[in-house]
Amino acid sequence: MTEQLLQRYFANQVTPEEAQHVLDWFDTGEGHTYLMHRLDDQLGKADWHAPPNVPGPNAEQMLNAIRQRMTPDSIDDVPVRRLNSWAQPMRWAAIFVGALLLATSAFWGYRYLNPAELIHQTAFGKIDKLTLPDGSTVTLNGNSRLRYASQWSSHQTREVWLDGEGFFQVTHQRNHERFVVHLPNKLNIEVLGTQFNVMARKNRSKVVLNNGKIRLDVGDQAKQKLVMRPGDLFYADVKAKVYYRKRVDASAQSAWQTGKLTFDGTSLLEVAQMLEDTYGVTVVIADPDLRRQTVSGTIPNQSMQTILNGLATLFDLHITQESNRIIIQ
Questions:
Q1: pLDDT tier for residue 208 given thresholds of 50, 70 and 90
Q2: Boundaries of each Protein FecR C-terminal domain copy (predicted)?
């Protein structure tokens, strides 16, 4: 079983045959363990903590509830009883995904079901643009999530929570309300009408200012506030305790939203991390010297395959793909 197939399954992007294959695997000991780990990971995220006085979740109990909902009796309860060979696996898939959401909603459903908050999640490799309540827009890269209030009142701080990568175009309000982007690891961005690109994945965060003015609150890690100018890039790796600021071509950093990728002295290791974060694959570069090799140029960004083809052609690389594993030599 590959992680790529599992991600497509949960995004409802599989064929009936693939759905049946995944469901059969879920019924094995290995699949059972995977589901428990997936629930533990989702419920253990810092930004999805429980409300006060609510006990912590039990992944094993939730998984048992899911398995009960997947019994033949529960399937027979579905109104339509006669299904052709195409529809049957898809019904199983729908029941399982629905059961997963129902089993977990008791713990963190207050986040998803609270009408005062909205969550926008993009699939691997998919770019989407949305408009916020104040008219500001955000373009989300693949595998990214944005949480925000369904409406903001006058004199209220406009707050959003980003996990992934997004390009923000923030509107300036008549009453000068603050706009704050919360990133993982206590990194916050305060904005007053501007355009900027943000990448926040795992322990790494990168902010690039296109125009306007923003202030970074680095929180407990660096204990300082940093005012950025257009063309500034700020990078933070909390785990490695690496922080730096440098001047870059800001438009190149956000070119991904226009259907192309622009590299300017970018290491192949950084390119590999981008592919892993955006497309959910594993990239292997065995040669340490090759990892440090830098690339410069522009390639299409229509799909992962066009990116791989462009990298291979532009930089004379040998790239092979085995399921969701990419090998660069």
A1: very high
A2: 260-328
